């Protein structure tokens, strides 16, 4: 009787291998931090040599760029909200800002590993010697500039007062509130980000100004 043949393993494409590396590194950085990350540990978890790993990422800092640029910054964006087809995102006059933040909160709550990655790196990167220092120190400007590439549907009172350019303080307060809720998410007793945000939203986007624009 012939012995059963072992199925051939499918060779991963470069894009698939890079995605696998980012998945593994996201978990490891959230656990150990970037400073404590061993490239050998990443390579072992992926099932390749360290030399093979470096072929895909170039350097350890190249891995950091993948984590922030290709993973964190490219998910949960206003464009993703538009692509979801939600009526609050596809209105002819633009995206509802309160609805987008609800979408983002739900997106983050469903992906705690990304929140851990961001918070761990953010704490480490308070050190000017950290390779992500400039990324985090310039984060408010980067987020504002990125959001400003989209069209937002705003209440008439805000439009009359100057429109989107006047919104930066409110946008920053909303993100700061979200960041605080994410820290609380990892403590005990656990909280629901969506429930916490439901308490914040009427404070940040009060009635009657935002009625009809949610």
Strand order of the largest sheet: 1-2
Query: Which structural class should the secondary elements be placed in?
Result: mainly alpha
- Assign an overall shape: elongated
Give the total of beta strands: 2
Low-confidence stretches: none
How many domains?
A: 2
Number of DSSP helical runs:
12
Order of helices and strands: HHHHHEHHHHEHHH
Beta-strand proportion: under 5%
Whole-number radius of gyration?
21 Å
- Ends: how far apart? 69 Å
Mean pLDDT: 93
Helical percentage: 55-70%
Give a quick account of the main beta sheet: strands, pairing sense, barrel closure.
2 strands, parallel
Descriptive overview:
This protein has 214 residues and is an all-alpha fold. The chain folds into two domains: 64 residues, Arc Repressor Mutant, subunit A; 140 residues. The protein has twelve helices and two strands; from the N terminus they run αααααβααααβααα. It has a two-stranded parallel ribbon. The chain starts with 13 loop residues before the first helix and ends in a 10-residue tail after the last helix.
